[in-house]
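Fold this sequence, please.
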Amino acid sequence: MKRESRTVDRSDQIDSPTQRHLPLVDLLVDTRAELMDLAVTSGLKVLATMLEEDRTAICGARYQHQAQRPASRAGTAPSEVTLGGRKVAIRRPRVRHDGGEVPLPTFQLMASEDPLNRRIVEQMLVGVATRQYARSLEPLPATMTTRSTSKSAVSRRFVAKTRAQLEAWQSRPLDSLDLVGLILDGVHVGDHCLIVALGIAADGQKHALGLWEGSTENATLCQSLLANLQSRGLRTDRSLLVILDGSKALRKAVRDLFGDVALVQRCQVHKLRNVLDHLPERQRTWAKAILQRAYRSTDVATARRLLLDLGRRLETDHPSAAQSVREGLDETLTVLGFNLPETLRRSLTTTNAAESLISRTRHVKRNVKRWRGGQMVVRWVAAGVLEAVKGFRRLKGHKAMPQLVAALRARDQQLGLAVDAENVA
């Protein structure tokens, strides 16, 4: 019985911009060479073949007369392509038409600087210093001419790339995000104060919204960041849970922009620390136990009674601690009134999600020895934040998020605020 041939006829296939069939390139290789040298040398020969194919597609076959030749060959010129985090010198085939240079599609793709800039940023974010960048790359054959690996070149490209990332991030529209929560928290880097905004969507997904810098956490800085969020599409016409670290400037800015729309939840961890800081060491254990018992309660009235009782007990000997307990007391129990499951309730009563995001930037900026202005601080921290975003997970307890959304939309109806038709249904 005659067996059918399994040979596939590809003669009618057309090359796509990303996939091309090349004739077997004549490669004479030294079997003693390292695999990396072999791969690089072979790859550059393949690139040369692809460039020559581009030139043939534009000019026609070599040594064949064409009355309507669209362009003509013009020898080669020294050029560079991006390879392994650096620029590598090659000879580029030239094509000219009507006195001008005709670009080769393959060369334009291979010479793009974006992969090089991305590689530099990635290396810096994992802790490679600018002076050590060249050592972190795969070695190339000594016969190849390379550049863009010096300390100054790496630094310039890192600055340009991170600045572009920051501008794109700070201007990204927010109207497509169904945000029901907003976490605002600050961190000090050198002499600069940074405030990060973290959004919580209705499905529990976290979104880094932006980063702002100032000398202190003042009202002007807080108002500018909230105004930026509003201009980018953050809704201010329906109830929004806003979780703060206790800053009076942030609280004032939220009240001025959102008014009654904002439901403020003061971070319970920050409040606990503030109270204990006003107490001597021997008094902290029992006071901490009462605070934790109140915050873990499932009933607002019970939690409020415990906190007021603690304030009375501290009033005589430690009035500052008593005042700290009573200050913003109701706002520390806002989420408790939603009757949410414990896991989600704990996630929404602290700014831990924002603090965790900021903490992930510490390893990114650990190689910086001297900060040269606020712009540099923002770029580095923003680069760390955008790197951390890649590993974001949904909020703990996110399965109960529909309960929070329902409670917020019910509040909208009570206040006569705009309510989406899909949420009413």
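Strands lie at 72-82, 87-97, 100-101, 146-147, 179-189, 192-201, 206-214, 240-244, 262-266. The chain has two domains: 35-60+70-166, 177-417.
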